[in-house]
Amino acid sequence: MKKNIINILIDIRYAIRYIILYHRFGSFGAKSHMLKPLRLVKPKYIKIGKDVTIQGLARMECVRQHEGQTYNGEIIIHDGVSIEQGCHIIAGSKLEIEKNVTISAYVYIADCGHSFKDVTKDYIDQPLVIKPTKILEGAFIGAGAKIMPGVTVGKHSVVGANAVVTKDIPDYTMVAGVPAGIIKKYDFDEGEWKKP
């Protein structure tokens, strides 16, 4: 009896949290949860699918205005995504993380950066340069990795810890290093990761 009451209270707590979060975000799927503290900029442009976990100290930003310019920042996180603590995701356009992606702690993902064109202005005051960025289904991003603007991380690919990814990663490929380079590819005939 006592166990049933505890389970009911837990369900009520999740239901209340879901209702609160659902109205802050563009959408917020069932059984998803976020742990505080978080920094959210324009959360109504963030869409979160079902069974998503986002740990504390995460920072997610949708840029809509900067230095008089208008942008269309939107973050879409599909079902089953796991994002560990301290991650920073920033979008100046549509940045999409497909289903069942695992993002380890302190990862940086962006689809925008500041221009360097005008040397009379501070870097932070210059317009944004937008380059579409996407993480495809089932990818794994190691701790401390940086996914730079303009990159597509392929399906079920693996990004090593602290890698800096500046180019697209093909599906079923493992990369590591600064800048990240291919170290292995999955061989379906032999059922294992092999050096190229």
What characteristics describe this protein?
single chain; mainly beta; nine-stranded mixed beta sheet; six-stranded parallel beta sheet; 12% helix; 37% strand; flat
Q: Could you describe the 3D structure shown?
A:
- The protein is mainly beta and 196 residues long.
- It is 12% helix and 37% strand.
- It is built from one helix and 25 strands.
- The chain has one helix at 2-24; strands at residues 27-28, 33-34, 38-41, 46-48, 53-54, 58-62, 65-66, 69-70, 74-77, 82-83, 88-91, 94-97, 102-103, 108-110, 112-114, 128-130, 134-135, 140-141, 146-147, 152-153, 158-159, 164-165, 173-176, 181-187, 192-194.
What are the SSEs and their pairings?
Layout: H1 2-24, E1 27-28, E2 33-34, E3 38-41, E4 46-48, E5 53-54, E6 58-62, E7 65-66, E8 69-70, E9 74-77, E10 82-83, E11 88-91, E12 94-97, E13 102-103, E14 108-110, E15 112-114, E16 128-130, E17 134-135, E18 140-141, E19 146-147, E20 152-153, E21 158-159, E22 164-165, E23 173-176, E24 181-187, E25 192-194
Parallel strand pairs: 1-4, 2-5, 3-6, 4-9, 5-10, 6-11, 9-12, 10-13, 11-14, 12-17, 13-18, 14-19, 17-20, 18-21, 19-22, 21-23
Antiparallel strand pairs: 7-8, 15-16, 23-24, 24-25
